[in-house]
Structure formats: structure tokens, C-alpha cells
Amino acid sequence: MLQIQENVSLKNFNTFGIEVFTRYFVEIAHEDNLVELFADPQWQQTDRLVIGGGSNLLLVNDFNGLVIRMNIRGIEHRISHQDIFVEAGGGEVWNDLVNFCVDRGYAGIENLSLIPGSVGASPIQNIGAYGVELKDTFVSCRAFEIATGTFKTFTEADCKFGYRESVFKNELKGLYIIVSVKFHLSLIPNINTQYGAIGQELAVRGITSPTIKDVSQVVSHIRVSKLPDPSTIGNAGSFFKNPLVSVDEFKVIQSKFPDVVNYPGGEGLVKLAAGWLIEQCGWKGKTVGNTGTWKNQALVLVNHGGATGTEVFSFSSQIIDSVYTKFGVMLQREVNIIS
């Protein structure tokens, strides 16, 4: 029997550590729990918020609805020659899955080490880092359709992945709950060290022929050196997306700011480093009230203690305005704003 709790604090369920309350709260440990929950018409009609690790959220106000915390666990894998198929429950911690695969030599997601959050949230955001995105190894996900009480499998094509985008953030937003995700990995690694400081750090360590474990360890080291630990100081990781601009727009920006940090963004596009843009506007390490940017990475907004969601949101708006005024580039929030 499911236990629906009332008036629950969400402070420990969001990595920003924002103190807000939800009217109702339920934890889902098995697929059948979702069937049972939505068999009750009350929850069909109630506002819902589905969370995993709570790492990509900014809670602005109390939530007058039902918060569903996904906690479906389990990792299964099947080996077919050099191909590895791994399926993980939506409630698994993402980095636990990465470690599971790296420890066994299953290559493909090692560059995504130490990204906060749950497996179930990973396709929604098409998480990515250091030249790798979730879609590169994604096979399918199994999701619960709230309206019908049935389960559906989504292929990569169904998910319409883009840069930090998927069908689950757009036309299917709020209609499905992801319960498991399947990946296609390999025993033959395709080592990717071209992005960020991976190559430099490997050189410092004297590693010339890195394994996937080397890459995972280096990525973890870089992330720890740049990003604050949510258990120490509230944050949601990268708060803004790296903006994509056309080649022509980039040339204009580069003519004014020759040192602008950039990466290939796909056909006809250039990706700019949002952290660099923010830092150039003087925001790195700045504190305003109870919030601010992290001292080592301007892309990360932090809760210094007692910050409200409104305070953090307002601070982020100031940064967006500042970057637009200086560079003519409009930053977009990567974090989901729940107001």
C-alpha cells in the first residue's frame, strides 16, 4: 500500500537545499506503485512534480500538489560479443551507474562521470559533458503513461534529443514518467580526451594511453576541482546552458572579444562557454545576499545558506541581463524552474 505523506519539506530532496514544502509526497520503489497511484482519479487531476536526485531543480515556491520521488533501483546487463547492453532503474544514482560500467570495462559513458542526478532524469535533459552526450549510448527508455496507466518504450528517434533537450521537456512534458533506461556500451573503448582539460590532466599524470578508468578519474578530478559538493554548499551544478550561435554571430563576437572560449556546435553553429561569458561580466565568485556564483566556476550558482528560490532566480536574471548587454548573447537556464 502506497503511503501518501502530507506537508513534507523538500529541503533534503533538492541539491540547492531550498526550504519549500509540498502538499503531498510519495516515493515510488517499483513500477507497480505508479499503476496503483494513478488508479486513484485524485492524482490524475492533481498538479505533479516528478523528482529523482533533485539535482536539476530550482524550487521557487511551496508546491500545492503531489511530489513523486522516483526510487526504482537495479542494474542489469547483457553481453553480446563486444557489445554490452545495460538497463538501469530510473531511481539509480547516475554516477553509480557510471562506476558500475567503468569498473567492468564497459565503455561509453566514462566522460559523464560525476554528473549529479538520477538515471531516470538523464534522457529528459540529454545530459552531456566533455564531448559526450547521453544520446551517444542511449538505446531506449521505458516510461509510464499517466493518462492510460500503461507503459511505453521510447527509442532514440522517439526522444528527439537535442542539446540538453528531449521530447520529455517539450511536447510530452508531464505526460510520462521514466522508469528505466537502456544503454549500448562496448568492450572496445573509443577514448575521447579532446574536450576540456582531460588531455592536460592526463599529461600531468604521465598517462599516454588512457583507459576508460583513467578518463573517468580525470573527469571526476576536474569536476571536483571546479564544482562545489552539494552536500557542503547548495547548488544544482551548471545553471545555464552553453549558448549556440551562428558562425556569423560568432565572428562578430570574436572581432570584439578575440579570447572568447568556443567549441564546435554542429553544422553552422558555434558553442560558447557560458561560464567564460559570465566571468567576463564580473560575476565569478560574487555573492549577493544568500546566493552567488561559485568561486571556481561562474556557471554554478550556489546557496550560501538560507537562500530562497526567488532570490536565486532573481540573481540568475541579473546575470542573463548582464551577459546580453555585453555580448548580445541570451543565456538560457539549464536548471528546471519550479514556481
CATH topology of the largest domain: Uridine Diphospho-n-acetylenolpyruvylglucosamine Reductase, domain 3
- Integer average pLDDT: 95
Spans of at least 5 consecutive residues whose pLDDT stays below 50 are none
What is the total number of structural domains?
3
Supply Rg.
20 Å
What helical percentage do the residues reach? 25-40%
Total helical elements: 10
Which architecture of the largest domain would the CATH scheme give at its second level? 2-Layer Sandwich
Please trace the helix and strand order, writing H or E for each element: EEHHEEEEEHHEEEEHEHHEEHEEHEEEHE
Question: What is the name of the CATH class of the largest domain?
Answer: Alpha Beta
**Number of beta-strand segments:** 20
Specify the structural class: alpha+beta
Can you put this structure into words, describing what you see?
The strands form 6 sheets. The protein has a 5-stranded antiparallel beta sheet with strand order 6-7-12-10-11. A 4-stranded mixed beta sheet has the order 1-2-5-3. Strands 13-19-18-17 form a 4-stranded antiparallel beta sheet. It is 26% helix and 30% strand. It has 10 helices and 20 strands. It folds into 3 domains: 66 residues, 2-Layer Sandwich (Uridine Diphospho-n-acetylenolpyruvylglucosamine Reductase, domain 2); 112 residues, Uridine Diphospho-n-acetylenolpyruvylglucosamine Reductase, domain 3, CATH 3.30.465; 105 residues, UDP-N-acetylenolpyruvoylglucosamine reductase, C-terminal domain (Uridine Diphospho-n-acetylenolpyruvylglucosamine Reductase, domain 1). The longest helix has 19 residues.
